[in-house]
């Protein structure tokens, strides 16, 4: 069985690299991009099991990106589990994240056990 594919959108390369290492160690196949626009471009061509979206990104942020994903014509892609990564959760309520289309929220500094737990849970690994 092939590895589950994770798409991480995070403009901080430190967090991106840490998350990549942690999840690769769990045998996930990781693709990383820097903003929401790149997420939509790559989603158009490839399939993923889960998206991890930073909320504050240049060009297109996580909130806008998840709304666009949920509105995709491809129903399978529109239903992909999406997790928010946020450094300032206080800006949004849990309700706002849910309404936007997120399945779960991870707060920075990232708790890596929680990251693995959420990704495993949402990809049924």
Automatic annotation (TrEMBL):
Looking up SUPFAM superfamilies in the UniProt record yields:
CheY-like
Q: Does the keyword field hold Membrane? A: no
Q: Which organism is it from?
A: Arsenicibacter rosenii
Task: Indicate what this protein is called per its UniProt record.
Answer: Histidine kinase
- Among the record's GO biological process terms, what is one? phosphorelay signal transduction system
Q: Which Pfam families match?
A: Response_reg
Keyword list, A-Z: Kinase, Phosphoprotein, Transferase
Domain of life of the source: Bacteria
Q: Which PROSITE patterns match?
A: RESPONSE_REGULATORY (PS50110)
Kindly give the CDD domains that the UniProt entry links to this protein. Answer: REC_hyHK_CKI1_RcsC-like
Q: Which GO-annotated molecular functions does the record name? A: kinase activity
**Sequence ranges assigned to domain Response regulatory in this UniProt record:** 5-123
Task: Please give the residue positions where the record annotates the modification 4-aspartylphosphate.
Answer: 54
UniProt key word Kinase: yes
């Amino acid at each position: 069985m092939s590895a589950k594919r994770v798409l991480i959108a995070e403009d901080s390369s430190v967090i991106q690299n840490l998350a990549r290492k942690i999840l690769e160690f769990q045998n996930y196949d990781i693709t990383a991009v820097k903003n929401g626009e790149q997420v939509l471009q790559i989603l158009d061509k490839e399939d993923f099991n889960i998206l991890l979206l930073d909320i504050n990104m240049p060009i297109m942020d996580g909130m806008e990106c998840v709304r666009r994903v949920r509105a995709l014509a491809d129903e399978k892609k529109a239903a992909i589990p999406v997790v928010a990564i946020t450094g300032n959760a206080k800006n949004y309520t849990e309700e706002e994240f849910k309404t936007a289309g997120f399945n779960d929220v991870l707060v920075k500094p990232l708790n890596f056990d929680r990251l693995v737990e959420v990704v495993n849970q949402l990809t049924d690994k």
